Amino acid sequence: MRWKGIIFLAVLLGIVLIILFIFTDAWLEAQLEDLGASIVGAKVEIDDLDISLIGLHVRWQRLQVTNPKNTMKNLIETGKCEFNMEFLPLLSDKIIIENIALTQLRSGTDRETDGRLPREEKEARENFITKTSDRLQKNVESSVGVQLSSLKHKVNVDSIMKLLQIQSIDKITALQASLEQKYDSWEKELSQLKFEEDLKKLETRIKSLDINKIKTVEQFQSSLKEVNEIKASIDSINKSIMGTKEDLTSDLKQTQNALGQVDDWIQEDYDRARSMAKIPEISMQNIAKLIFGKTVVDQFTQYLAYIAQAREYANKFKSAKPEKEESPPRLKGQNIYFYSKNARPDFWIKNIELSGITGDQITLEGNVQNIVSTQKLIGSTTKMLIAGSSEKGASLKLNGELNYLQEKPAEDFKLSYTGFSLNNTYLSQSKFLPNKVAKGMGVITADLNLSGDEINSEIKFVGNNLRFDYADQAKPSNKFEEIIQSIVRGISTVDFKAKVTGKSDDLHFSLNSNLDDIFVRETKAIVSKEVEEAKQKIKSEVDKQIGTYRGQLNEMVQEKEKFLTNEMQKYERLINEKIEMADAKKKEIEKQIEKEKSKLKDKVKDIIKF
Amino acid sequence: MFGIEILAKLIKVLRSGATPPQIAAGFVLGMIIGLTPLWSLHNLVILIIIILVNVNISAVIFSFLVFSAFAYLLDPGFHSLGYFVLTDISVLLGLWTVLYNIPILALSKFNNTVVMGSLIVSVVLILPMYYLIKKGVIAYRENIDAKIQKWKIVQVIKGSKIYNLYERIKNIGG
Hints:
The complex is a heterodimer. Chain A is α+β, with helices and mostly antiparallel strands.
């Protein structure tokens, strides 16, 4: 035993006590601030923490918890706070606090300095909640963009015409060539016919039959025979002409049928152009997701992150055999907790009394019971109830319970926030609804229920009497933004209902809003009108391009048909003339024969009389 | 330079006026502090022992420095051993539970895997290390010291500032 050592030890103890007296407050303040910051994800600041070792009395002047979404604002800020810690549990490394009164609780207060934490790459531990958050984020990101891209630009007639590649023109040109060939062939065939010449010969033969020169019955009979022969020849030619006419008529009929196809071809070109300019399908859910999805999901995942923290802490203090941490920080290790049935938990704030006022003057009161490291040791769940109302009629009620008594962790939160002011707020982070709300009132009801890895939640929001601020509104850069802006100008109520249900590997997220209906209606009206105009433009453009070819075709067909028809009519006329001529000659001869017969009869009668 | 200083420290320890058991005890206590996380309750106890009992403080410091480096390297092994002892040996669970719920003992952080693992290794090494060091010191003084004193490097170290500083402060600890 060395006496110098004992003196040294005494001096050392004295120094330690002095250091404790001087620095404990600052050290503990820093420890608590770091712990709070790790939970919230932004700075947590405690002003003037003072620990009195006599009676273990703790107090601070102010507590600020930064809003991680807006680090120049506080999520909550409290005024002066005092509480006592129990002494004996401290010897067992346990912190037990009977009651904390947090007064002058306020939310949304401005910060003097930025509460952002230095960026730190944190290895994310995958669990049900991180998986759920990831799935929700992906769901929102992938839902809309692609489908709406078709809406972003006006219907461009020029580009449609380029893509269209009108097919009628080629078909008309081909038809025209084919018909020309056919007409040429007919012209050639008609020109080779010798009906005219033959008929002239027959005409000469008819004319050569001079009745005045016929004297005898034999001569008459011979002339009659000649006429009949001429007639037979004319009939034969007539038959040929009729046959040719029939063939020509049939061919011309086919030509008319072919011409009828032209209309079909043009119609096909119209139809294809129309299909290129058609209105895209817009499902209602997409719009709500696009506008409110990110806001809702971000908020939702933020709350899920808090729940994940609570679960992680609850799991950390779980007795029995915890899962081994694969690589804890060097020299830090992993704590294993051994609770006996009647032991006290490592950390337990039995009751926190809250009172304060929100940004929109709601006077809040409430309490949080049993913030505890191991619920099983006290046999109670962590519960919170905060409620209040303002003179203007706004009210807020938040009920919550964290239940880690059973093997399956469960959390349940219910929020009702009605009649709050939306003045100077943004309803969405989306660039499609960038307008600040100049005036408006809101109602939110939310249920969040988690049990193990199953989630069931619903958030309803209604914004009434809305008036948006257009001062900073940028000029729309595309059709979609234009439609959204036009819708926003015309609405005074916005509502949406978001639902997240299922398990992390089978998650269902839906978001519906009244903007869905309005958007779809307006979009269809605006875009349809535009597309109709475009269709008319396309029709006239198609007509313009096809018109010349069609006109040429029609002109050619008319001209050729007229020519061919005239040719046939000429032959018909000629043949009819010759038939008439032959008939007349035949009648004349027959008449003369009858005359001669009559003369002969008279002669015979005279002979008999004598 | 650090290597030379360590060597000088070792030679000074071996040649000091302390007895071999004092040096061996100091070495073993320094080993425990070095292997286990510094801010633990048992290390406070060991510190008090070091101050109160006549052990060689130079040996404590030397041993602490050497085993701290080992501790850093062996940390994953300590974690695994501690986890095994604390969770996998079912017969001990009752003991740990009782100890954990005794005031003050909970502050010892015995329930930490690295504390437990490193403490077990330290405890296992106490006796072998004590006898090994004691025998080593005796053997050194009887057979090796005279030869080493003739080495040029030793002459250089003897003339160094560190050595002179050590000479001045070596008697402070007794």
